[in-house]
Amino acid sequence: MTGNGSGTAAVLREPDSFGIAVPETWTQYDLDGDGLAPVRAAMLRQSPDRAERELINATFRNARRILATARRHGAVYASGITGMFEDGLLLAGMMIFRLTPPPGESFTAHELARHFSATGRRRGGRGERQFTTVELPGIGPVGRLTGVEEADAANGVSYRMLVMHTVVPVPGSRRVLVITGYSPNLPLADPLYDLFSAVTATFSFEYADADGNDG
Fold first, then answer.
1. pLDDT value at residue 155
2. What is the Cα–Cα distance from 131 to 46, expressed in whole angstroms?
3. So what's the pLDDT on residue 168?
4. Alpha carbon of 150 to those of 147, 159, 161: distances in Å?
5. Any alpha helices (H) in the chain, and if so which ranges?
6. Are 60 and 47 in contact, with CB atoms under 8 Å apart?
7. Nearest CA among 105, 39, 100, 106 for reference residue 67
8. Pick the CATH number of 26-206 from 3.40.50, 3.20.20, 3.40.1000, 3.40.30
9. How much is the pLDDT for 2?
10. What values do phi and psi take at 187, rounded to 5?
11. Residues 61, 63, 66, 70: is their CA dihedral positive or negative?
12. What DSSP assignment string belongs to 21-34?
């Protein structure tokens, strides 16, 4: 940020939108979860094994539940991949939540990340997660929470998920964006964390010029 020549810093302008680059094999989801249906149907057609089909159905039910809950708690973007690989069924995704602190409160990266869940809810202390500070290209230092959290499914059943929450303040605004990578594939923690970190590093704010064009 540069000065205006009189020693006064320029006023930060709020971005018009944001951008993020996910792998080409990923699908951008509508937050209602309706886009999951054709993917689920295609996988079921290719899976004659009954146990495998039950796993696919359970995975997609959880994915739809995650998206629906995330939408109710401020999610503005969701993308991911669900597919059968040599090691089994892979579910991984990225979501972005837009949050504004209530009047009289403020969001610190540490406190927000510590209480944030992959569905966008404020949560208790369940799970093993570590807070760090990282540098995002073009953004600067931001807070990040990485580890495992317990998510609620149906009928009191819970399941564990890898998560990476990165808290990005929105310039010129009281709001923050939380970029969340998630996956229930715990044995793939190291490569998935590397992937989530690489995708988050592509995040950028976008501004429209005076004529309304992206600039």
1. 55
2. 41
3. 95
4. 10, 6, 6
5. 36-45, 50-72, 109-114, 189-200
6. no
7. 39
8. 3.40.1000
9. 33
10. -65, -15
11. negative
12. ---TT-EEPPTTST
Residues (pLDDT < 70) of the chain are 1-11, 31-36, 39, 87, 119-127, 151-158, 210-215
Q: Write the single-letter amino acid at 85.
A: F
- Tokens found for residue 169: 């303040």
Measure Cα distances from 18 to 33, 70, 201, 205, 206 in Å: 22, 18, 13, 4, 5
In order of 74, 91, 178, 181, the CA distances from 97 in angstroms are 5, 19, 5, 11
Structure token digits, residue 177 = 């964006």
pTM above 0.90, yes or no: no
Residue type, 119: T
- Are 65 and 57 within 8 A, CB to CB? no
Query: Distance between CA atoms of 17 and 57, rounded to whole angstroms?
Result: 35
Cβ atoms of residues 120 and 69 within 8 Å: yes
User: What order of strands is seen across the sheet that includes strand 128-136?
Assistant: 27-28, 75-85, 88-99, 176-183, 158-169, 140-152, 128-136
Unique residue bearing structure tokens 């004659």: 48
E-assigned strand segments in 101-175 = 128-136, 140-152, 158-169
